[in-house]
Amino acid sequence: MSGAPLLELIGLAHAFPIRNAFGVRTGWHKALDGVSLHVGEGEILGVVGESGCGKSTLGKIIAGILPPSAGSVRFEGNEIADLPPRAGAALRSRLQYCYQDPGASLDPRWKIGRALEEPLVVHTKLSRAERRRRVDAALEAVGLPQAHLDLYPHEISGGQQRRVGLARVLMLRPSLIILDEPTSGLDVSVQATVLNLFATLSKAHTLAYMFISHDLSVVRLFSHRIAVMYLGRVAEIGDTTQIFADPKHPYTQSLLAAVPQIGGPRVTDHFKLEGEPPHPDALPPGCRFAPRCPRADARCRSEDPQGRTLADGREVACHHV
Fold first, then answer.
1. How far is it, in rounded angstroms, from Cα 274 to Cα 180?
2. Segment 48-76, tens digit of pLDDT
3. In what order do the strands lie in the sheet with 44-48?
4. CA-CA distance, 146 to 136, in Å (whole number)?
5. Are 214 and 202 spatial neighbours (Cβ–Cβ below 8 Å)?
6. Can you give the C-alpha Rg of the chain in angstroms?
């Protein structure tokens, strides 16, 4: 990455309150705990991990959907974590969030044309004719015919809904889009079409993506770098080719060992991951992966490992690396 990062997160944390039947807070659920990473201009950063690791929470905090409990979020050189909604609206218009279920994010009572035009009505002072031209251009960019403007969300397929959702976030011409499970639930052929569309738009508009997914095969093909998350923290982050060729963190090794491959041995065929992740409300002392790690020793169970940079540039949080 050359120059300042487009997006920089420093020590980002978020905790959901735990309440009893009477609404009294009895504790905190730590969804994120000290996440630090960056995304460069035009870069595609994949974020992977098991369900409940904090991937979607991370994306929603960056987009301003959830507030951070602690830490810093800097976008285009500006601190946006603590900005009030009105002050941050103009800046966040260049940072868009594409929902996992685009059908649920579209108003079923609005036709596609109105749904695409609404961000321009709220955030710009463009004339009606100028808004229509930008709507037409966005629809063409995602490969949908103009006739779709007069359809309702339920009248188009799931793959077409994904395209409409992407066209909607492109309306304000962002520099970073957070994609939350963008290929989940799609047929393989539709997945390929959607991914090709993402890649084309990235090159055409110098778009950066934070690609949140559980599908390692897709992330491998699509991302420049990968951040592997476990229980609210980044276990390993580095270039995609480095991580898939030689994973360092035991958790990363276990994820890659679980990826089915046709012909040939898997990257770490000897490694097995057993048990379930500890509950975020009762994390073990030391390394939070220690209860499931075959390499864990007394130090792992008592001392929390901090991320350190290796000679090849990747960052790993493990005592044995």
1. 27
2. 998 888 999 999 999 888 889 999 999 98
3. 95-98, 176-180, 208-212, 44-48, 225-230, 233-239, 315-316, 308-309
4. 7
5. no
6. 21
